[in-house]
Amino acid sequence: MAEHAPVLWFTGLSGAGKTTIAKEVQANLIRHDVRAELLDGDEVRATLSSDLGFSKKDRDLQVKRIAFVANLLAKNGIVVLVSAISPYRDSRDSAISSFARGYEIFVDAPLPVLERRDTKGLYRRARLGEIKNLTGVDDPYERPEFPALHLDTDGTQLFGSVEEVLNLLVKEGTVVRD
Ligand SMILES: Nc1ncnc2c1ncn2[C@@H]1O[C@H](COP(=O)(O)OP(=O)(O)OP(=O)(O)O)[C@@H](O)[C@H]1O
Ligand SMILES: [Mg+2]
Fold first, then answer.
1. Dist. CA 178 → ligand 2 center (Å)
2. Residues near 87 by Cβ (< 8 Å), separated by ≥ 6?
């Protein structure tokens, strides 16, 4: 039976950089022949969680489903990169502690920066009242208390953030630097 692989759980507000960083880390791992899968909140919502909305109950259920799939992959030796807002500390903590090797990665930038990026146009629509329950605007986000990594994507370029994640994987033994 394969050794349990690590699960890196990227949490943070919309536009913080979770998907961008996780994809880049995945590509890097695959280039080094490490099997890695991305579980992205948007993709899970479009498929497995297409029945869910944005209430606390539904957001917690989304986290549980992602954690279930992540566990199946990780116990078969596949490194899992989860990118999901996952705003509630309790459900995030139970998900991450359910993994043999789980790491919380807080992807962080100030709200005004995210509103300027507005990669999906969500902040503008929320300010116009066209959508409700946007995390950080009119829905809560509970910041991680003791993340394994805290990435400041305002002060750091993508490359630097990716390096920090790869360094974590070197330290915990998944990636061997030559
Ligand atoms: N250091 C950085 N790391 C990651 N992304 C950065 C960084 N600096 C700027 N960006 C930009 O920030 C944006 C992040 O968007 P991304 O879709 O990755 O966010 P997200 O956290 O996945 O949001 P969502 O929760 O809505 O899916 C991209 O346009 C990216 O180019
Ligand atoms: Mg994303």
1. 31
2. 11, 59, 135, 139, 140, 141, 142
**Which residues make Cβ contacts (< 8 Å) with residue 101, sequence separation at least 6?**
4, 5, 6, 7, 74, 172
pTM beyond cutoff 0.85 = yes
Per-residue pLDDT tens over the stretch 33-90: 999 999 999 999 999 999 999 999 999 999 999 999 999 999 999 999 999 999 999 9
Q: Closest ligand to 12 CA?
A: 1
Atom in ligand 1 nearest the alpha carbon of residue 156: 1
The fold adopted by the segment(s) 7-11+32-109+146-165 is Rossmann fold (3.40.50)
Name the packing angle between helices 56-74 and 89-97 (round to 10°).
Answer: 10
3-state helix, strand, coil in the chain (%, to 5): 40, 15, 40
Q: Is the CB of 23 under 6 A from ligand 1?
A: no
pLDDT (tens digit, 9 = 90+) per residue, 114-129?
999 999 999 999 999 9
The residue nearest atom 24 of ligand 1, judged by CA position, is: 14
- C-beta 117 within 6 A of ligand 1: yes
